[in-house]
Amino acid sequence: LVLAGGCSSGTGSSPARLPARPTASAAVAECRHQYASACYTPRQLRVAYDIQPLLDRGTDGRGQTVVLMEFASMRQQPAPQVTDIRQDLALFDAVFGLPAPRLQVDTSLAGSAWPWLAGGEEVEDAEIVHAVAPDAAIRVTLIPRWTGPGSWITAVDGVLRLALSQGSAVSLSAILGEDCFTPAQVAGLNSALQADQEHHVTVVASSGDFGAASTACAGPGVPTSVKEVGLPASDPLVLAAGGTTLDADPATGAYRSETAWHTPPGTASPQTSGGGFSHLFPRPAYQDGVAGIGAARGVPDVASDAAGGTGMTLAVSAGAGQYFFYPGAGTSAATPLWAALIALADQYSGRHLGFVNPAIYRIGRSASYHQAFHDITTGNSTVTFPQGTITGYRAAPGWDPVTGWGSPNAQALIPLLARYTTP
Questions:
Q1: CA dihedral angle for residue 28, residue 33, residue 37, residue 41, rounded to 10 degrees
Q2: Which of 160, 170, 252 is nearest to 205 (CA)?
Q3: By Cβ atoms counted within 10 A, which residue in 64, 144, 324, 328 is the most buried?
Q4: Alpha carbon 19 to its chain's center
Q5: pLDDT, tens only, 49-69
Q6: Burial environment of residue 39 by CB neighbours within 10 A (0 to 12, 13 to 18, 19 or more)
Q7: Of 243, 275, 238, 285, which is closest to residue 260 (Cα–Cα)?
């Protein structure tokens, strides 16, 4: 992961030498051996979040498109840092019994980039979307490599405007601190988001992986000692996704419990679910009256699994019969999951729901809250870096600035979204 951090790319391991057609059990065993992780299968993840019953009844994302913003990769980098996304998805599908993906790549913002080259972030985003909404189309929109906050926010703006005619949900698995941008850049981003809102496009963004700390403007993936939230997640027109640690039955995937995602004490590069309160945006109307939210926009809105120790098994093909299997991680894993859930909700409702935040908060305040969400009440977002400790927030009943309203119970949530989202 380039900006938000937290994605284990598998680059520290050797490729597995498995049979020509590795089984799901062999892939999971290899993932668990290399990373000491639960390495859930796609089906186990779907069972945990009650997505599987929807798929069983035909709500599988068909007719919908999820747009993924990804950095263009360079040919010079070897596998697994850079692979062929077509081969990766083919391996993923063969191992876990998924249908062939409806994959499209748009290079219009990235110049002469080779469309099928993919880094670990793109693999994670695409495979999580495909696992949750297997019949949804995936449209990868490539942007130029990182050169600074200005060029990056321009690229985000471009992706959001392309999405007006490309899909119904956008996944943005990256974040930079609010102080990285000029007022004009913030206004430009909000204008693009308003256009998406008017065209019923849902935009989901990562809340970040550094707890209450921001991401450095000049150092992608590096935290600072500044306590703040980041863009685009803090814009009120975005559905901001935080992270959890999921405990599910290792055999069936049955949900057992969840806590706020936080790397273990002593981790060399500590990470935890990002969140807090905006310095740029006042509290939007849909957050009025929510306990724990003051005068400013609170982040995140929702959450799902982001812990490397409990991530879904991802697959990378290194060629010549060699494979990498590793767990997804970071709020950049939660973001595509929520974008895929929106694709399911759009199909279920027969229309593009678009701006779902008011519906999310209406559900959170309703008697249906605990049927639609897993309320995360344990954990915190305090992080200690070499430059000091950033005191964060604690998970609590109801909404909190660590995991929002919590993780999805999709079988109950999606019909409620369809009911409560204004046409």
A1: 0
A2: 170
A3: 328
A4: 31
A5: 999 999 999 999 999 999 999
A6: buried
A7: 243
